[in-house]
Specification:
With 282 residues, the protein is α/β, with parallel strands linked by helices. It has two domains: 180 residues, no CATH class; 70 residues, no CATH class. The protein contains eleven helices and eleven strands. Helix 6 runs antiparallel to helix 7. It binds zinc ion. Zinc ion binds next to loops.
Length: 282
């Protein structure tokens, strides 16, 4: 299959090193997604850093996002060898670290994921959904949320779901139905990758996700008898009850998103922000 490329001049947001990289033209010809996130791995632009570049449909760079995780990947194996084994490390090799952040976010917060696969992709849907389930507590397992698509062209792609994650197996991300930073995912992945045993890595992810869900459960418990609660009050109560150091606003937003996506919008809407209230007055 011949593919034409567009040359993009990319600068590393960490060190400023600049290099031309080739992006398939098909990525830009898609009109429906707007900005595409392209993962730039270590050695593509500079030898030390990896990051995301935001590119619009005209091929103009709109911004960068840094990825702080540095990970040594085995380089002696071929792609094919790597794909046969399932592990976090291998999944990162295939989808890129940001792709994995996004897939974890989608799994935890109950968004459907569509992955446009190329011909070399060897995993099937069942396997990917099974791996996804391994990071969730048992009560949330068994729901199919990851779909693989064969698509010759992005413009023919017919996905009506605006609330879905859409990406491919070439480290391009076309649609993320959230606009939060992937700090939670980055944090738990960093911890997991410090462990050598590959099975333990998934278990550790599951533990960190379970911790968030515990906070969610306690939040819904606090909310059940109340009409509403202010964010700062809720933070104080959660921190005191669960004996954890103060929950920050980012964490609270994760709790809210989790409740909204997995439990009920109505319960999530009981959490009030003082800022929001103030803004609605003026
Ligand atoms: Zn750099």
């Amino acid at each position: 299959m011949s593919e034409s490329f567009k040359v993009l001049e990319v600068s590393c947001p960490f060190c400023g090193e600049t290099e031309n990289i080739n992006i398939p033209v098909a990525i830009f010809s898609q009109k429906k997604f707007g900005t595409v996130k392209i993962q730039v791995p270590v050695n593509a632009v500079c030898p030390e850093h990896q990051f995301i570049v935001f590119v619009d449909t005209k091929g103009v760079i709109r911004g960068y996002e840094k990825i702080d995780i540095q990970m040594a990947l085995a380089t002696t194996e071929t792609d094919r060898e790597v794909q046969r084994r399932i592990s976090l490390r291998n999944l990162i090799q295939i989808f890129g670290i940001y792709g994995i952040f996004s897939l974890i976010h989608a799994k935890v917060f109950n968004y459907t994921s569509y992955i446009i696969k190329n011909e070399n992709f060897e995993y099937n849907e069942e396997l990917l959904n099974m791996i996804g389930d391994m990071i969730l507590p048992e009560s949330r397992r068994g729901k199919k949320t990851i779909y693989l698509l064969d698509s010759p062209s992005l413009n023919k792609l017919n996905i009506k779901d605006k609330k879905a994650l859409i990406m491919d197996t070439q480290q391009h991300i076309f649609q993320t139905p959230w606009n939060v930073k992937m700090k939670f995912e980055e944090g738990i992945l960093k911890r997991a990758l410090e462990i050598i045993d590959e099975q333990d890595q998934l278990t550790l992810l599951q533990q960190d996700i379970r911790r968030l869900i515990n906070e969610v459960n306690h939040t819904t418990y606090i909310l059940q008898d109340r009409k509403d609660i202010y964010e700062d009050e809720l933070i104080e109560q959660l921190s005191k009850d669960l004996k954890i150091k103060a929950i920050n606003n980012y964490r609270l937003n994760l709790i809210k998103e989790y409740i909204r996506r997995n439990i009920s919008e109505e319960i999530a809407s009981k959490i009030k922000s003082r800022v929001g209230e103030f803004l609605s007055i003026i």
